[in-house]
Amino acid sequence: MTLPSIYRSAAGEQAVLAHYDAALAAWPTPYTTQHVPTRHGETFLIASGPPSAPPLLLLHGATANATMWAGDDRAVARGLGGA
Q1: pLDDT tens digits for 66-78?
Q2: Following DSSP, what letter does each residue of the chain receive, concatenated?
């Protein structure tokens, strides 16, 4: 099943994705990304902070994305024994 695009145009999609990539490039600590399959579709995940620390899951609101946590990432990592 093909879902309709959330973008009004291919150019708009590319502009949004370029902005998102630029925001990820400025992420304050080392990170990895992955796509996690769920029964409701694929979910994008950013993992950062010390691998030995207990996991902490931060969820964004409906009109945001994961980059909203970039400003908090360094402080959270520091509190967990990281950078």
Answers
A1: 888 887 777 776 6
A2: -PPPPSSSSHHHHHHHHHHHHHHHHT-SS-EEEEEEEETTEEEEEEEES-TTSPP------TT--GGGGHHHHHHHHHHTT--
